[in-house]
Specification:
about 170 residues; alpha/beta; Rossmann fold; 2 domains; 3-stranded antiparallel sheet; 8 helices; about 45% helix; globular
Length: about 170
């Protein structure tokens, strides 16, 4: 396969996940990294399987039992119990190094995030946030507002380290 076709195939790939109830922290990391990830901590195995089949999602789990169900088409058992290592494991397993879109999904509801004007979110902000920040983002689905606060540099350092680590793998 020539390089141009391979790059187009990677670009067009839409890898989506549904996580079992034990993977809440991984879910947040996957969403922060831009991966469409369904998760609720009250989903039963049958519901996870139904979502996976209907929405063509990959089941991520630490429970081998769910993967033994004949209805499961795509699934992966995570070896690590540490969320950051699980994220690395998923990205490497599914070759998603070039598909990461940092901070493009809401960590709460999985919706997409878009840049928004400060004036449209000022009523939701605390006075200190209004005073010190000018760039804001909002989830299209749940309306959660994000900004580049004190946690932003720490998250970006984590993602930069992740990218560097993945390049060496």
């Amino acid at each position: 396969m020539d390089t141009k076709i391979k790059k187009q195939a990677e670009f067009l790939r839409d890898t989506k996940f549904v996580n079992d109830v034990h993977l809440g922290k991984l879910t947040r990391l996957l969403r922060m990294t831009g991966f469409d990830t369904v998760y609720r901590n009250d989903l039963e195995d049958d519901e996870i399987i139904r979502i996976a089949v209907e929405e063509q999602r990959i089941i991520l789990t630490r429970d081998l039992g769910i993967l033994k169900n004949k209805k499961v088409q795509k699934g992966y058992f995570l070896r690590s119990q540490q969320p950051k290592e699980q994220l690395r494991e998923v990205i490497l397993r599914f070759q998603l190094q070039n598909n990461m879109k940092f901070l493009s999904r809401c960590i709460i509801c999985n919706g997409t995030i878009e840049k928004t004007d400060k004036s449209s979110v000022e009523s939701c902000l605390k006075p200190g946030t209004q005073k010190h920040f000018n760039d804001f983002f909002r989830c299209k689905d749940c309306g959660k507002v994000y900004w580049e606060g004190s946690h932003f540099n720490k998250m970006m350092m984590f993602f930069q380290n992740l990218e560097n680590e993945l390049e060496r793998s």
